[in-house]
Amino acid sequence: NDLVKAISTKLEETILGNAAGDATKPAGIFNGAESYDFTTDAYQQTVDMESTLDGFDGLAEKVYIVSPSVKAELRKQSKDTGSGQFTYMDGEINGITTLCSSKAQGIVLGDFSNYYICQWGAVN
User: Fold this and answer.
1) Which residues share a beta bridge with 65?
2) How far is Cα 19 from Cα 74, in angstroms, rounded to an integer?
3) What's the pLDDT tens digit per position in 90-120?
4) Residues 41-59: pLDDT tens digits?
């Protein structure tokens, strides 16, 4: 169980990392990602991210992946004045499922339904 947990942790760190890929590992999904400052106008920035992604056809299911610090900041940012609506509410950003991981390096939005991780060998 400890070995499986260690491998799972390393996979998550690699996948959600920002390191460049090489011959022995893939680039993390945050490698080369645009940086966002959500201390102001977070709602508009997330809408812009969604608009950019909407330009790609064939997306099955959009999902946000965020770091705990991004999640905390988005929970504080109102969508507007007076509505009581925040950018992150009830596990979603703008109605899109949002996953939080301490291994994430910021925020990413994508369709991960066809994201495959392959490895060779077995864990006994």
Assistant:
1) 99, 108
2) 25
3) 999 999 999 999 999 889 998 888 788 777 7
4) 889 999 998 888 887 776 6
- The radius of gyration of the chain's CA atoms, rounded to the nearest angstrom, is 16
Q: How far apart are CA 109 and CA 65, in angstroms?
A: 6
Q: What is the rounded CA–CA span in Å between residue 90 and residue 105?
A: 21
Q: Is 76 left (phi over 0), alpha (psi -120 to 50) or beta?
A: alpha
Nearest-angstrom CA–CA distance, 44 and 79: 8
Task: Indicate the residue type of 96.
Answer: I
What pTM does this model have?
0.82
| Axis-axis angle for helices 68-76, 42-54 (nearest 10) | 120
* Rounded-to-integer distance, Cα 89 and Cα 113, Å: 23
Q: DSSP letter string over 47-105? A: HHHHHHHHTSTT---EEEEE-HHHHHHHHH-BSSSSS--BSEETTEETTEEEEE-TT--
Contact 113, 60 (CB under 8 A): yes
